[in-house]
Amino acid sequence: MHEPTPESTAQVSTGTMPGPETVVELITQAHRSYADVTDGSVADYIPALAVASPDLFGIAAVGVNGRTAGVGDSEHAFTIQSVAKPFQFALVCEALGHREVRERIGVNATGLPFDSVMAVEIASDGLTNPMVNAGAIATTSLAPGRTAELKWRFLRDGLSRLAGRELEVDEEALASERATNGRNEAMARLLEGHGRMYFDPDETTDVYTRQGALLVTASTLALMGATLADGGVNPITQRRVVSEDTCRRTLALMLTAGLYELSGDWLYEVGLPAKSGVSGGIITVAPGKGGLATFAPPLDAAGNSVRGQLATKMLSRGLGLDLLASSPVAESTD
Ligand code: GLN
To answer: How many helices (H) and strands (E) does the chain have?
Structure first.
């Protein structure tokens, strides 16, 4: 008899996404339910983000069968920002191996804001988590390539394969971020002081910043999420981008810190791995079923889209995606 190894994810049982009519009906309902919510504020620490319309609101879903549904501003382009972090982690993890990235970056929740400098200071070993800026900058420094340009190409090409199309940089947003990037630059230096920066800190920060300025839409993000839901194979291009094991490790990190210090609240309410970004995107992955993405710029105090969280919570329940939910077999087979 075949004994599964700890690395094996061959035996998976995750159920299926409801049919396309139900998905369209529910995302439309979620959009309608929260379109008028005006809570939260648009990020203003990067000037290019501050000009985003607070009314934008899009929701998209892509199943592991490639079926795509979108509502509202699901085709509106915005910069990916921190939603790139899990995908960047997946690419670097695939290249270096999961043990090495755990040893050199860390995988535990910091419990602190995404741009926390203190997170590096209070961890005696300088280890954080790839879902927050410090850990993501350290991850960037580990990307394969001898030069910043090669590291950038590795990341852009990999992210593009996950997205199933060539991703482009928003040059205006990038210039704006480069001009106001002191905190991330300081973080890279601090990591260097802790022996946790594996390439030139300034060049690394620049590659990290370029990656965050890649343009996506909610539909693109849902497909990238669906690739993580589909064991690393993009359901539209049918191309394998990363391994099954890399996918599940990436999802584990999204659970620990995908919504930063509010990741516990998120897990408590939604029960799915997710990742937010300051431009207003949130991706959520239902393993074996598909990816969801929301886009709505106004954020809560932790930097997570307010309407995105509300809509995803509704969809997790409505579509039966919550990984932690169960009901007795006898009742459900009645
Ligand atoms: N580029 C942003 C930064 O580094 C991303 C942060 C985020 O989306 N939370 O500050």
So the answer is: 15, 7
Structural domain spans, the chain: 17-318
Residue 260 a catalytic site member? yes
- Give the distance (Å) from ligand 1 centre to CA of residue 68: 28
pLDDT in tens, 39-97: 999 999 889 899 999 999 999 999 999 999 999 999 999 999 999 999 999 999 999 99
Fold entry, domain 17-318: Beta-lactamase (3.40.710)
Q: Output the CA–CA distances (angstroms, integers) from residue 11 to 231, 286, 322, in the order listed.
A: 12, 16, 19
Residue nearest to atom 2 of ligand 1 (CA): 81
Annotated catalytic residue: which of 207, 208, 305, 316?
208
This prediction's pTM: 0.94
299 within 8 A of 310, measured Cβ to Cβ? no
List the Cα angle 161/310/45 in 5-degree steps.
Answer: 70
Q: Is 114 in the pocket of ligand 1 (CB under 6 A)?
A: yes
Closest CA to 224 of 209, 239, 204: 239
